[in-house]
Structure formats: C-alpha cells, structure tokens
Write a structure and sequence with these properties.
single chain, 7 helices
C-alpha cells in the first residue's frame, strides 16, 4: 500500500496530466494504493486537489503579494507581465503541483495558494492524515 505522501504525489500527478478521472475506476484504487473502504475518501482528496490546481493563480498568491509589497506600481506591473508569460505560468503551475504533492511534509503550498483557499489546504491535510495508509504525514 502506498504511504500517504506517495498517495498524495500520485493524485497530484494524475491531476497535473488531466488523468485524475482514472481514480473513478476501482481497479486503479487497488489494495496497493488504498483500502477498498477508503476509495471514496481518496476520490474526495482528488477532487480537492483538482479544484486547488484548477484555480491556481500565482499573481494572487501570498508569495507574489510579498514580492510586490511596498514596490512601485511600475515594478509590480513588470512582475505581473513577467509572470503572465506562458512559460513562466507553466513553471509556476509546476512548482504549485510539487508544493501540493508535498503538503504533508512542507508548507510551500500555503505561500502559493490564495489566502482565501488556505482552509482547503488544511482540509486536504486532514483528509490525507485520516487515511489508514501507512507512512509519515
């Protein structure tokens, strides 16, 4: 059976490549992944991760706010433009996926998630920790 951190990384990876719907198949959620009684919980975790990932916006993150706090509007505008570049947006989204995948071990996801959605990160941790899967976290 996967550990909780491994399970989280697997789910984030599936969300990232837009294949999270595979978790609707019981065969994918075999006893090597989770207990049969926790398939619904794993799907709920998937839905939460999907929503967080879908609504990710680096420009609304506490990290970006800190980066522009007290700076001139010209500087802030230049950073907004830089982070709006498709390549940079993809890099930020990838960093967010890594942060979500490591939610049980690190707090990076909080600095990349809109403050209004921090409750969702707390809920994600609660749901992951409630699973019977072995492992730290």
């Amino acid at each position: 059976m996967l550990t909780k951190p491994e399970l989280c990384r697997m789910i984030v990876g599936l969300v990232e490549v837009n294949d999270a719907d595979l978790l609707d198949q019981d065969a994918i959620l075999s006893v090597d992944v989770c207990t049969p009684g926790e398939r619904t919980a794993v799907r709920g975790i998937r839905d939460l991760i999907h929503q967080l990932y879908l609504h990710f916006d680096y420009l609304a993150s506490p990290r970006f706010v800190d980066e522009t706090d007290g700076k001139s509007s010209a500087f802030s505008g230049m950073l907004r433009k830089r982070y709006s570049d498709p390549v940079r947006r993809a890099e930020c989204r990838r960093a967010y996926a890594v942060a979500l995948a490591n939610i049980l071990d690190e707090n990076d996801a909080y600095s990349l998630t809109k403050t209004a959605e921090h409750d969702s990160l707390d809920r994600l941790r609660e749901l992951l920790n409630a699973l019977a899967n072995p492992g730290d976290g």
